[in-house]
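Entry 14. Ran structure prediction on the chain below.
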Amino acid sequence: MTEAMVSPQQGDVAPGLHGRVDIDLIGKVFRQFGRVHITRVLHDAFAKRVFRALQQEVPWAYAICDEQGHRDLEVASLDQLDPIARGAISASVDRAARSGFAYRYSNFRLDDNYDAGKHRELFLMRFYEFLNSRPFLDFARAATGVQDIEFADAQATLYRPGDFLTAHDDAVEGKNRHVAYVFSFTPEWSADWGGLLAFPDEFGHLHEAFCPAFNALNLMRVPMRHLVTQVASHAGGGRYSVTGWLRNR
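Output, structure tokens:
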């Protein structure tokens, strides 16, 4: 989609960044480390409305990458499958994860559905429009120093207990991905619950890890190796986010 100014539908809040976001500090950290964690990035009412949409309005599917590669399952979670099918899929994902790239989590593709004219009534589509509006793209260029950014793709994600994403660097030829982003909408979380956005070095040690938070934005340069640690069985809720890449055409 093209850059556009967006306005709220009747009864919804207006999208917008929080007025106290410090672009200079964000840019300094990003230039030095190639990644940055930004707190309270959206104005409060907008962030709360996005979270409510993620909790109550999203038609989730279940995305896996196993020994057969990527697949989207027409269920919101593995719990909706019969025990035999659930066990077979989990085992296949686990085997793939031991030696390579694998994942499992619930998702909803905002960009694909928007471009197909589907689910345009959902409030999350207003968030997707905001991500492709001039105010946000100007903010992204200023925060990262990447002037080639032209648009954002996006998916909503939900990690429940047992979900994870193994290490990778987001570099895909022809995709023109400059910066990866994760908008975090998880109001209560503990590092003990997993779901951390973590950054391993060449020795497998973790340089840094960002804990799920509410109304926070993580930006990282592409390529950069990262992973999402498995959400623990004792986690007290779901890890909600909207993620994607800032790209050019």
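Residues 23-57+106-247 form a domain with the Jelly Rolls fold (CATH 2.60.120.620). Will compare against last week's run tomorrow.
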